[in-house]
Automatic annotation (TrEMBL):
Originating organism: Candidatus Nitrotoga fabula
Annotated stretches, region: Disordered: 18-38
Protein name: OsmC family protein
UniProt xrefs under InterPro entries: KH_dom-like_a/b (IPR015946), OsmC/Ohr_fam (IPR003718), OsmC/Ohrsf (IPR036102)
Coiled-coil features, chain-numbered ranges: none
SUPFAM superfamilies named in the record: OsmC-like (SSF82784)
Gene3D superfamilies to which the protein is assigned, alphabetical: 2.20.25.10, 3.30.300.20
């Protein structure tokens, strides 16, 4: 996997992925930025959330669960001193589907956290990561 980062101006950077996608990153106005894009550490959280959500949906579908939607809300804390690493991250999954079984959702989240999601497993080496979930039964 390869990526590149190009400095544009002040604290604005353009990230380019090997797969051909670009992301503009910027800092807050008080740090010399213009708030034109997400902060790099926000992208770390988004990437981790995407990784674990992908896993959870995939595992549930393999388990023949009828998933119609999945959202994860992430709440994170960082150290107050440099390096300002993540110290706590909480993932709250909201899984929607037909006849979803809580034990299947719990198992999928556990498998993602402990076995499949490279990003969350990597972050768990320095941050306390917790998970919970709610199920919304789709009656349509």
């Amino acid at each position: 996997m390869k990526a590149s980062i190009k400095w544009k101006e002040q604290v604005t950077f353009l990230g380019e992925t090997e797969s051909g996608h670009s992301v503009l990153m910027d800092g807050p106005p008080e740090g010399g930025g213009r708030n034109l894009g997400p902060r790099p550490m926000e992208l770390v959280l988004l990437g981790t959330g995407g990784c674990t959500t992908y896993d959870v949906i995939h595992i549930l579908e393999k388990g023949r669960q009828q998933v119609t939607g999945c959202e994860v809300k992430i709440d994170a804390e960082r150290a107050s001193e440099d390096p300002k690493v993540f110290t706590k991250i909480h993932f709250h999954f909201i899984v929607t589907g037909k006849n979803l079984k809580p034990e299947h959702v719990e198992r999928a989240i556990h498998l993602s956290a402990e076995k499949y999601c490279s990003a969350s497993i990597m972050l768990s080496k320095m941050a306390d990561i917790t998970h919970d979930f709610e199920i919304i039964q789709d009656t349509a």
